[in-house]
Structure formats: structure tokens, C-alpha cells
Amino acid sequence: MVRFLRLVLIFFLAACTHADGGWKAKDISGLMPDLELSMTEAPARPVTAADYRGKIALVFFGYTSCPDVCPTTLVRLAQALRAMPDHGAGARVLFVTVDPSRDTPERLARYVSAFGDGVVGLRGTPEAIDRLTRRYRVSYSLGQPDAKGDYEVSHSSGVFVFDAQGRARLLVRPDDRPADIAADLERLERG
């Protein structure tokens, strides 16, 4: 019986040790499609995924009127970039608005500039946004406008990390710390 319990304990300990490959964020290698997009980088530059090849891309869906999740997430990501030895030169945060009717190119460009050079704003038509969110299984919804035309927007809070070849590698969650994100990004840079 003792031998059986030891075997069970060894099995459970083995299952808990670095099955994730030692990543701090959630390893999603092979679970999501490669980076593919066709958007406009605010204020007015058309871009595709090819424009970000050679750099790590952190893709986050949100909107500029977001009161909490978006600014908090972008601050954490900007802190992670600044914590890297090259200050994130080999990475870009791609903030994709899910509210293009309110997030004009100028507003989006002004918003992302507050978080540093490594953060860019992307926007597209509602159809392009829907294609992109479906591709990465991201949910969002726009509420009904009130009398003033304001409405709520709900959206996912995860950040997809693509390596320099555009392969989906990690999912950064809301509780991942900037230092841990930076460590994962540095590891991706090293290959």
C-alpha cells in the first residue's frame, strides 16, 4: 500500500512540474493560429501581420473608453517592455479596438501614445474586427446606446503573444506580473 501511495504521489508531483515548459504565462503553442491580420495602424497606416514579422507581437483587444481593464493591461505590458534589457525594442503591443465607431484614428493614436512607443493602436471595419476576434476566439459585445449615445463594451482580457515568426505562443492573463511577462518575452527573443 505504501508503495502504491508513493507511486501516486510521484505521478502527481510529475504532473505539476513544468508541464508548461517553464513559461510564466499560459503556453498556447499549437493551440491557436498564426498571426494574421489586415488593419490600419493609427492614425492611418495600413498594416498586415507581415509588418510585425521579426518582432514579438502582443495582441490585446479593447477600446479607449474602457475604464479599467484596458489601461491596467496596457500599463502592465508597457512595464514589461521597459523591464527588458532592450526596453522592448524587439516587441510590439498591438492594441486592437473593438469599438471603431468611437475610437477614431486620432483618438486611438493619442490613447496608445500614453503607454509608450512599443504600443500601437489598430483599427478596422466591424467585419475585419469580427474576422480577427473569431480567428482567436475572443469575445466582445457592444451594448445598446443610451439617450446620450453612450454604450457599454464588454471584451476579453487576455493578451496573445506571438513569436517573431508570427506563431501563437503564450496567453498573458490579468494576474501575470510585468516582471514575469518580461522574462517570457526575453526567452522568446532568445529563441
Describe the structure in your own words.
The chain has five helices and ten strands. The protein is α+β, with helices and mostly antiparallel strands and 191 residues long. α3 links the parallel β5 (91-97) and β6 (119-123). The longest helix is centred in the first third of the chain and has 15 residues, at 2-16. Residues 1-19 have low confidence and may be disordered.
Q: What is the residue-mean pLDDT, rounded to a whole number?
A: 90
Unreliable stretches covering 5 or more consecutive residues: 1-19
What is the rounded Rg?
19 Å
Total count of helical runs of at least 4 residues: 5
Q: N-to-C SSE series?
A: HEEEEHEHEHEEEEH
The total beta strand count reads 10
Main sheet attributes: strand count, strand direction, barrel closure: 8 strands, mixed
- Strand arrangement in the largest pleated sheet: 1-10-9-4-5-6-2-3
Specify the helix fraction band. 25-40%
Structural class: alpha+beta
Distance between the termini: 46 Å
| Content of β-strand | 15-25%
- Overall 3D shape: globular
